[in-house]
Amino acid sequence: MTFDPSEFRRASLERWERVAPGWGRHRAVMQRAAQPVSSWMVEAIEPQPGHRVLELAAGPGDTGLLAAEWIAPGGTLISSDGSEAMVEQARARAAELGIDNVEFRTIDAEWIDLPTGTVDGVLCRWGYMLLGDPATALGETRRVLRPGGRVALAAWTAPEDNPWVSVAQEELARIAAAPPPDPEEPSMFGFRDPERIEELLGGAGFTEIRIEQLDIVFAYESLDAWWDTQLDVSATLRDLVVALSPAQRDDLRDAIDARLQRYVADDGSAALPGRTHVAAATA
Questions:
Q1: Domain containing 133: what range?
Q2: With contact defined as beta carbons under 8 Å apart, do 231 and 25 qualify?
């Protein structure tokens, strides 16, 4: 099937609108795991008081809100997402933290509605690889950055490095006899090869490209808590699971639990590993 970018964008936005409340509910557990990634990214854009920083695909906004503290006084964070519901999650988080040097915007990362050369740094954690046209998005990122401004991004490495999510995907594909992902379509692991990240950044005109890998851990009280979270933050997973018969759902959980048991402690808590690329470059 030929990849239709317009249909992909429409369906993707619909899914993000649906799961935004779930991301808000589970923000704390996700951010505990992601904190090293957010810290690396914020440090990589070298924020200074007075800077103007844009976060794309911000979700609940934790990475950008961390940067907002670094650029005060006098600086402004533009916290943005393509989903209005996600923007509201970030707005609520900023109010909870008492951070007020933030503008909240609904922005499509492929068409950034900002003047050229008006921001000092751009952050995008686990966003570019999910876009219909990441090359265009990185070109837009380069356009809105001032000369010498910095971009920092994160993108997942290979599925085998990320059993916290890939095991469920693989077992679901097996039980539901789902076809393999279309390599032409954007996906969670679309940037698994660091060479692709380097090529896209270079193609957009960025220099001084640096790419590293970070290991993180998603900690849950139990595998049941992990599973409930996955269903709450992934509309795709939820829809596929709902379509299964009750017997298939039982088989799915049994297969997943068997493969993830190695990460479960004696008290039932689960510590599921993940690995991500982090990258930074100069405009």
A1: 5-158+182-217+275-282
A2: no
